[in-house]
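Exercise 3.2. Students should predict the tertiary structure of the chain below and write it as structure tokens, then compare their answer with the key that follows.

Predict this chain's 3D structure.
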Amino acid sequence: MSEHPNVTFVRNGFAALAAGDLDTVLTQWAPGLQYHGSDASGRVRDFANRDEFFGMLME
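Answer key:
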């Protein structure tokens, strides 16, 4: 039985992240991504797009 395409998509994303391939990782997230939640310091924040969200991950 073959793997569902979504599983392959997620596996490839995690493999790219583990390899430090952020260009590939970024292509998997919609530019209009919106996130409301805690950052690495536990502060609740809002992020209006993919670049803000990944900027927080890089802090």
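Discussion points: The first helix runs from residue 5 to 18. The beta strands are 35-38, 44-47.
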